[in-house]
Q: What sequence folds into this?
């Protein structure tokens, strides 16, 4: 395998033009500093939506982390047409 080439690239898949728009379910304390930023702070990623049962806390997290929308149900987040990556 050549340096800098992923298996996907070698197989003919080109994801360079795609942006993963994450939706995170359960944006509590751990997501705040550990799991969340690792998902959406890399090139080709952005945080589209978040979900937490407490709507106010979900909205607060979304505002602080740049997510366009927040939900208080899993179904709401999974139905968001802008989300193409869920965790």
A:
């Amino acid at each position: 395998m050549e340096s800098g080439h992923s298996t996907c690239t070698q197989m003919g898949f080109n994801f360079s033009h795609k942006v993963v728009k994450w939706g995170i379910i359960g944006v509590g304390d751990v997501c705040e500093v550990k799991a969340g930023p690792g998902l959406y702070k890399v090139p080709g990623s952005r945080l589209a939506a978040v979900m937490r049962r407490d709507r106010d806390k979900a909205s607060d997290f979304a505002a602080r982390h740049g997510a366009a929308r927040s939900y208080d149900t899993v179904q709401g987040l999974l139905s968001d047409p802008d989300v193409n990556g869920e965790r």
